[in-house]
Every structure is written in C-alpha cells, then in structure tokens.
Known about the structure:
By secondary structure, the protein is of the alpha/beta class. 50% of the residues lie in helices and 14% in strands. It is built from 11 helices and 7 strands. It has helices spanning 24-32, 37-45, 48-54, 60-70, 75-86, 93-101, 118-124, 137-140, 147-157, 171-179, 190-203; strands spanning 8-11, 18-20, 89-91, 107-112, 133-136, 164-168, 183-186.
Amino acid sequence: METSQIKAVIWDMGGVLLRTEDKAPRTALAQQYHMTYEEIDDIVFGSDSAQQAFVGEIDIASHWVAVRERFCLDEAGLRKFQQQFWAGDFIDRTLVDFICSIRARCKTALLSNAWSDTRAKLESRGVLACFDEAVISAEVGLAKPDARIYRHTMRLLGAEPVEAIFVDDFIENVNAARELGMVGVHFQGPEQVVAEVSRLLNAGG
C-alpha cells in the first residue's frame, strides 16, 4: 500500500483516548459492595441495560436507573457512585494532540461503542474538534464489531476500508476491521500507537 492511499485514521475512545489510569477509586468502590473490580465494571458496562444503552435501545438515564436499583441507591447515592466510578479515568491529551496533528495528512474519525450522552461530554472537553466525523454506537443503533458500523464510518469519510487505519484496544474490534480490509492497529499504549500510526502514514502500511 502506498502512503498516498491512506486517507483516514479511525480511533476508538474508551481504552484508547479515554483510559482508566488509576484503578484505585473503582477498586475501593467495588470493595464497598464486596465485589471485585471486574464485577463492578461488568455491572456498569456489561449488564443488559448497559448493552441496550450502547445501541440506543434505551437511553443512558434508564441504564443508570438499573444501576441505582441494583445497588439500592437514592439519587444522591447514585451521583456519589458515579463520581467514584469515573474518578480514575483521564483523557489522553497528548494522544488527542497527535490526532489533531495528522489531520493535515488524512481525515480522522472517532468510532466508539458508547452511550447517548457521550457526544455532549466530548464536545464540552474539546475532544471532537480533532475529528472530521464521530460515530457513536448509541446514535446509530450499531456497535463494533458489527461490520455495518465500520462501513457507515467509511461512507461518512468518503473512503474505502483499504484506505483506512483503525485503532482499538479490543482485538476483536481490530480483527473485524482487518476483515473489511482496513489496516488494524491494536492499542497497547500511547507511545506504541503513535509510533505505529506514524510509521503507517509515512510508509503506507
């Protein structure tokens, strides 16, 4: 593949741009309910209501009602729960800056399995300014690794899969992109992904 054929770089959000860098707050929260980190994480992200919210079948408020009921919380208790659950999460501003820096060479897109409140939160933090397109699963009713959400993203970008680099921390999502012809990059750390995407843009993959 020639360098000129790379027309777009598509980025995952959770686990890539937004990462849980400090697990201590969520671990402490789990311990309050005699759970492991993985168990409480699965209730928030892996429960039926969470999965329904990821594809827009219910709104995010309904998911949090389910979480509140699961832990027998009142409204104030839920707010405290949410604050501690997210306390260790940080946006990687250096990686965001890198994405902004490559826009002179290619289009950029965000492709995230995320809830209906995600766009507003990212806009308020100035993250979306670095992307030509942002595809959020709850808004389109599809989620990775469904091939349709990748194709939808490519149509918005006006590019073919073979002209795109896709970055994600879940290997099943990377493999799905590769099956469509994209150049898949499995995120394992910010330095690794910046080096690999830079190499692909410079050498054409």
